[in-house]
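[Help] Beginner question about ligand-bound structures

Sorry if this is basic. My supervisor gave me a protein sequence and a SMILES string for zinc ion and asked me to "get the holo structure". I don't really know what that means in practice or what format the answer should be in. Inputs are pasted below exactly as I got them.
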Amino acid sequence: MQMVIIGSGTAVPQEGRSASCYLLRSGSGNVVLDLGPGSIWGLLRHAGFSVRDVDVILLSHLHMDHCADLAPLLFALRSRELARSTPLKILGPPGLNDHVKALGRVWRHWIEPAGYDLQIGEREGREDHKEIMLGGLKFRAAPTNHSLFNLAWRIDGPAGPGVLFTGDGEATEEMVALGRSAPHLLVCECSAGPDEVVPGHMNPEQAGELAAMCGSRLLVLSHINPGPDPDTLAALARKQFDGEVVVAEDGMVVDISDGGKLDLDAGTRGRGDAEKG
Ligand SMILES: [Zn+2]
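Answer (accepted):
No worries, everyone starts somewhere. Holo just means with the ligand present. The predicted complex, written as structure tokens, is below.
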């Protein structure tokens, strides 16, 4: 299983960091986590990935920097070039069905599925981590503390460590329990800077504490706002967590089957391509 970081930024536009989006590729299926604005182009630029090939979309919550590309994605899937017949599953927080219906009132038939089945599932994340199995991948969710209902998602393949992705928000007992259940890499939001305490968000120390509580193998700090120096963020997280810490970059590739081997060359390639584009 391999993760490509497509968008390591926030709602605030900044050079080199797009809004929230991640691609998980494995022999068991292609999963996109979050769809911030520009994601469907970012997937192509950083991973050569066409949205035609996505099997499952996991949304953490319904703030625009995490889901605004939903309508552009559904519109794109109507084009002849991206025609598909396999079902598309979208899992997200309570309110997702209403959200998609509201998009339909705005964009009408232009986002209706053509030739494929669109399956939307809402999760509360509190039902004893009840799992969903899809194509050999296991999905579980837990709520975090955020200004809008947010799900942390855990994804496990048939072998090797899984991934725990926090989306947005502060740690909860449910999220820690989800992390502690098996080896994993933690992709943690770090939108608050050093020494900042922002209710509903995490700073690097809090992210490090969460990784320590969860027993994570690798901590990837992501959802970074403009300003803080990445080395400072990583150093502060390391004060709380003994394991490896890395600050996400758009285009960075993390090899999860190897327990979190970083392919930083791929990250550099991603940036180079972005500069050209
Ligand atoms: Zn948010």
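A couple of things worth pointing out: The chain has one domain: 2-276. Confidence is low (pLDDT under 50) at residues 267-277. Feel free to follow up in the thread.
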